[in-house]
Amino acid sequence: MRRLEFLVDSNHQALRLDVFLSENQKEFSRSHLKKLIEQGHISVNNSQAQAKYRVKTGDKVILNIHPPSSSGIEAETIPLKIIFEDEVMLAVNKPAGMVVHPAPGHAKGTLVN
């Protein structure tokens, strides 16, 4: 778990908690921050707060970031024709009828696998 701490200064007085956080870090969107607040991963002065909470000078805001959980998707050897590949992009010729990602009834043999 990673922990980020912020101390509210007078320049940020009276901002909503979600707005304050979105202005003070660029890693997460405001909507994602709202979800983290709702899930209890963000506290103000060691107490859970709501996104609409208005921060005050001297408030200590703590953001606990948990590592993402494993997707559970297992890699498979599936023959695919690679059309283009470089260090940032891969283009493949997906066969018609191949499911793109695992879903109920299609856990294996998908493009994601």
TrEMBL record:
Q: Does the keyword Isomerase apply?
A: yes
Q: What is this protein called?
A: RNA-binding S4 domain-containing protein
* Family the UniProt entry places it in: Belongs to the pseudouridine synthase RluA family.
Protein source organism: marine metagenome
| GO terms (BP aspect) | enzyme-directed rRNA pseudouridine synthesis
Q: Which PANTHER family match?
A: MITOCHONDRIAL RNA PSEUDOURIDINE SYNTHASE (PTHR21600), RIBOSOMAL LARGE SUBUNIT PSEUDOURIDINE SYNTHASE D (PTHR21600:SF44)
Q: Which Pfam families match?
A: S4 (PF01479)
Cross-referenced CDD domains: S4
Offer an example of a GO molecular function term for this protein: RNA binding
Specify the RNA-binding S4 domain's residue ranges. Answer: 15-83
Q: Which UniProt keywords apply?
A: Isomerase
